[in-house]
Every structure is written in C-alpha cells, then in structure tokens.
Amino acid sequence: MLFVIDFDGTLARKDTVDAMLEKFAPADWEDIEQEWLAGRITAVECMQQQIRMVKADHIAIENFFRAIELDDAFLPFYRHVSAFAKVAIVSDGLDHAIHVATKHAGLPEIPAYANRLHFVPEGIDISFPHINPQCNAGNGVCKCAVARDLSGMQDMPVVLVGDGKSDACLARSADVVFAKSSLLRHCCEQGIAHIPFDTFDDVLTTVKTWNTSLPQQAVNLA
Ligand SMILES: [Mg+2]
Ligand SMILES: [Zn+2]
Questions:
Q1: What's the pTM value of the predicted model, to 2 decimals?
Q2: Which ligand lies nearest the alpha carbon of 164?
Q3: Which ligand is in closest contact with the Cα of 182?
Q4: pLDDT at residue 71, rounded to an integer
Q5: Low-confidence ranges of the chain (pLDDT < 70)
Q6: Could you tell me which of 5, 60, 179, 214 has the fewest CB atoms within 10 Å of its CB?
Q7: How far away, in angstroms, is 14 Cα from ligand 1 center?
Q8: Is 52 a member of any domain?
Q9: Total domain count for the chain?
Q10: What pLDDT digit, counting tens, does each position of 124-167 carry?
Q11: What is the 211 CA–ligand 1 centroid distance (Å)?
C-alpha cells in the first residue's frame, strides 16, 4: 500500500506558499491568484509569477520554513502505517519548505516530491521537475503520475490524504481518498468516494480498522 500525503493544508496546518507570499511579497500576489482561480493562467504560471515576487534573504526564508506548524498527529500516524506501507509526501508546494519543516519537527526522513525552490540574489525562484503535460490538471507536480511511478509494477493500492486543488488529479485514480476543505467539496461534486478527515488522528483511526489489506468497505464508506 502507498500513502500519498499532501503537505500544504494537510501535513502542514496552513498553506505555506500563501503564508510566505503574505509575509514576503507585495499584496498584488493575490491578483495573480485570482487569475488562476478564474482559469486564465495555469497553476504553474501562477506559482512562478508569485514565487518571483518574494523579496527576502536566505536566512529570513529559512526561519520562516522552520516555523511552519505541522499536524501533531502525523507522527503517530506515520509510525503506525510505515510498518506495512510506503509513505511519500507529494506536494505542489516547495521542496525546501518540506525538508526544513519536517526536519525541524523531528520527523524521520520521508521521501518528498515537490517543486524545486532555488535561492537567487533577489529572493527565490521555482522549477518543476515533476510536471506532466499529459495530465490536464496543469499543476507543477502531477500527483497522479508520481503515485503511478511509486506504486509501480507491484500495482500497490494508493491512499491519498489531501485538501486541495492539486490533489484532484490523483483523487480520480486513488483507491482510497481522505479529503478535507476544497478536495472534500470537489469529491462530493464529482461523485468520488472519499472519507472526510480533519487531522491525521482521524486518518489513523480509520486505518486501524483496516488490518493490513485494503478493505473494500473503506472505499465505499463515503
Ligand atoms: Mg494542500
Ligand atoms: Zn495528474
């Protein structure tokens, strides 16, 4: 079994990219957000433009990433599931934010797949090593492709835990979807079976009822 864990708004309590823009970018980053929400630019174009608006030095950004608040219930969840499943953090946010925040929280090293952050003299920039032009979701990280690669030949069942727009492409193909916030609304609208959750405590409670194989009733619960 493979657990695909979203970062912003799921493992991290808030969206760290938005919080970073609020702190370090001029207020018109929100205009670009509106362009994306209205479908006039892709998620990738939106992120690239916004990330380039960040004006801060390396130390200020590192400190900001260290202060990212994570869901306390994640570690007990991770300890339980890593005994029988693969776990990966798959995020359409920034790789360095994930590395710094998880290390600072004392979490074990968990494989992470995200957009790459680059420090440049004026601030930061972003590149997209996990982009997939074949997926029409238009995200920087195509979660359905990453999950396909990681679950690989063994045809492992995939469990998605997520909260937002970047989780939508994988929600269609995952065997089980734990959903909150806008992903929850998306699943309801699209008729995608899902299990609502708030924290990893809820996810763990459900997973404990599964034994170690993926139960059909979990898929049909929602
Ligand atoms: Mg998210
Ligand atoms: Zn995709």
A1: 0.93
A2: 1
A3: 1
A4: 98
A5: 211-222
A6: 60
A7: 8
A8: no
A9: 1
A10: 999 999 999 998 788 999 999 999 999 987 789 999 999 999 99
A11: 27
Residue 191 forms part of a structural domain: yes
CA 36–ligand 2 middle distance (angstroms): 17
Ligand nearest to the CA of 143: 2
Q: In this structure, is residue 36 part of a structural domain?
A: no
Distance of CA 156 from the midpoint of ligand 1 (Å): 23
Question: Hey, CA dihedral for 136, 151, 221, 182, is it positive or negative?
Answer: negative
Q: CA 4 → CA 36, 125, 171, 179, distances in Å?
A: 25, 26, 11, 12
Q: Could you tell me the distance, in angstroms and rounded to a whole number, from the CA of residue 171 to the centre of ligand 1?
A: 13
CA distances to 10, 79, 83, 84, 162 from 212, in Å: 23, 14, 10, 7, 21
Which three-class secondary structure state does DSSP give residue 178?
Answer: strand
- Is 116 contained in some domain? yes
Ligand nearest to the CA of 174: 2
Domain of residue 88, CATH code = 3.40.50.1000
220: part of which helix (H) or strand (E)? helix 216-220
Q: Which domain holds residue 189?
A: 2-15+71-120+130-216
Closest ligand to C-alpha of residue 165 is: 1
